[in-house]
């Protein structure tokens, strides 16, 4: 049995070679594919552009991390880990799965060929996992900001980053504008879960500031569920959903004497005034709802209260006592 997956092929060859190799395979251009009994060697012949088929001699090992490593020689001008090597490996995997392969088939139209490439692996793909050929990832970077009033804000930055061959992040990082992405021309690296998330992020304030809009906590849940939410940057900790934590609303006095309503939480947690109060543990990348002993609407109004100047504090306190009897 061959110990390799389509993802392993994607790490061993370029994205272009991966796609071309898959096309060669589904078009029936792999003439021979023989896997050694131990699954650590594959030989093959592929019909290329030359008069004679190209020959492949492929060795498969495994690194310390357990990932398969491919060393594929080919008689073509490229010579190493080329599209012909990729084609033979694709064929070896499908041969193991006993999938039918077209033999001596006529050349496919570009439209059909592209469709077959998309079809490959679709049965096992739930639309969330990244195919090996897609080397771009979308992350939801969450960080803290501060409004002009001094109030703490949550900033959401959908960020695209390219992967290197070793799956580390490249320096090519792009911040996306959710409102500029159309469903019809969406990037291929978007997964099914990303479309409703990006739609929800279109309602954020300029700069990706999350306010007290009703739908946002649902969008936040969706971002965390993808496993691609990161705190502080794409290299930051993965954001996970924590259990509800207790808290209360307290009035805090600033240096200028003004008072503001803020969330008071356990040590290490910071409060976020969203449609529902949330907390964040920046060091651990954990976020979750805050459990308050107050009606939801009242809590939201208190946290949205404007600053109270020192001379207005007695009157505001008296009015709150009158309007909100204990």
UniProtKB/TrEMBL annotation:
Record keyword Flavoprotein present:
no
Q: Which Pfam families match?
A: SWIM (PF04434)
This protein's UniProt keywords: Metal-binding, Zinc, Zinc-finger
Q: Could you say which residues form the signal peptide?
A: none
Which one of the record's GO molecular function terms can you name?
A: zinc ion binding
Domain SWIM-type, by residue range, is: 54-93
The identity of this protein, by name, is: SWIM zinc finger family protein
Originating organism:
Limobrevibacterium gyesilva
């Amino acid at each position: 049995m061959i110990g390799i997956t389509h993802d392993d092929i994607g790490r061993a060859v370029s994205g272009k070679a991966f796609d071309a190799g898959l096309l060669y395979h589904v078009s029936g251009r792999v003439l021979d594919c023989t896997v050694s009994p131990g699954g650590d060697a594959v030989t093959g012949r592929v019909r290329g552009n030359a008069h004679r088929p190209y020959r492949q001699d492929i060795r498969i090992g495994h690194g310390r991390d357990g990932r398969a490593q491919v060393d594929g020689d080919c008689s073509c001008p490229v010579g190493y880990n080329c599209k012909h090597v990729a084609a033979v490996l694709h064929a070896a995997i499908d041969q193991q799965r006993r999938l039918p392969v077209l033999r001596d088939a006529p050349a496919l139209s570009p439209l059909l060929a592209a469709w077959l490439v998309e079809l490959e692996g679709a049965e096992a793909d739930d639309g969330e996992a990244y195919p090996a050929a897609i080397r771009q990832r979308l992350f939801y970077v969450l960080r803290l900001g501060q409004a002009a009033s001094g109030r703490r804000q949550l900033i959401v930055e959908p960020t695209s980053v390219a992967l290197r061959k070793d799956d580390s992040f490249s320096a090519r990082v792009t911040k996306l504008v959710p409102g500029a992405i159309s469903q019809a021309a969406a990037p291929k690296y978007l997964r099914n879960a990303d479309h409703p998330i990006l739609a929800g992020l279109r309602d954020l304030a300029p700069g990706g500031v999350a306010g007290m809009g009703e739908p946002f906590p649902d969008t936040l849940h969706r971002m965390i569920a993808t496993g691609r939410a990161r705190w502080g940057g794409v290299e930051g900790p993965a954001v996970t959903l924590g259990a509800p934590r207790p808290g209360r609303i307290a009035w805090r006095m600033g240096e200028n004497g003004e008072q503001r309503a803020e969330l008071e939480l356990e040590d290490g947690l910071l409060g976020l005034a969203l449609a529902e109060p949330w907390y964040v543990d920046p060091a651990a990348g954990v976020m979750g709802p805050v459990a308050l002993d107050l009606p939801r609407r009242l809590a939201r109004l208190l946290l949205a209260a404007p600053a109270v100047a020192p001379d207005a504090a007695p009157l505001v306190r008296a009015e709150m006592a009158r309007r909100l009897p204990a």
